[in-house]
Amino acid sequence: MTGLTLPAACLCLMTGALLGGLFLFFKLLRGLLYGGRLCAAALDIIFCLVWALTAFLCALVVDKGRLRMFQVVMQVLGAWGTVVALDPFINGVTNIVRRFGRWLGKGLSRPASFLRKRWRIKRADMKAKRDERRKAAQSRKKPGRGKVPGGKGTPRYRKVPVKSKRYALKKKKTKNPLEKLT
C-alpha cells in the first residue's frame, strides 16, 4: 500500500478512531476508579506506548516503515472525531455509575450501621455483667493477711519437674562401638 490511496487513508482513520476509543476507555476507567494523578499518569503512559506502536505498525503497512504526514494527520483526525463524538456519553456513563455506587453504598451501610450499633450495645451489656460478677466475687472473698510471704495474697507456684528428670532415659551401654551398627 504505497502512496496516498483510499485504503491507506481509511486504515489510518480507523486506527485513529480505535485509539480515540482507547483514550475514552481509559478516561472511563480513571473516572470509575476515582484515580488521581498517579493513575492518570500511568494510563497516559500506556496510551502513548500503544499509540506509538500503532503508528509504527500502520507506517509499516502504508509505506514500508516510513512515517508519512498524511498517516499522522488521518490518525489524529480519527481519534479527534471519536473523542468529540463520544466524550459526552462517557462523562454521562461515569456520572451514572458513580451515583449508583453511592446509592448502593448508602443502601448497604444502613443495615451495617444498625448491626454495628446493636453489637456495641450487646458488648457494653456483656462487659457490665462481667464487671458486676467480678465485683460480687471479690466481695465474697475473705480478706487476706496482707503481703505475707506464702499468704493468701501471693500466688503459689507448683514446682514442675523438668522433662528429663520425669522420665529416666534407658541407654544401652555397649563396650564395642561396632555393636551399634549391627
UniProtKB/TrEMBL annotation:
Biased composition (Basic and acidic residues): 125-135
Parts of the chain that traverse the membrane: 6-26, 38-62, 68-90
Entries under InterPro entries matching the protein: YabQ (IPR019074)
Keywords, ordered alphabetically: Membrane, Transmembrane, Transmembrane helix
Regions of compositional bias (Basic residues) in chain numbering: 136-145, 155-175
Source organism, top-level taxon: Bacteria
Region of interest (Disordered), ranges: 125-182
Signal peptide span: none
Coiled coil: none
Protein name: Spore cortex biosynthesis protein YabQ
Organism whose genome encodes this protein: Acutalibacter muris
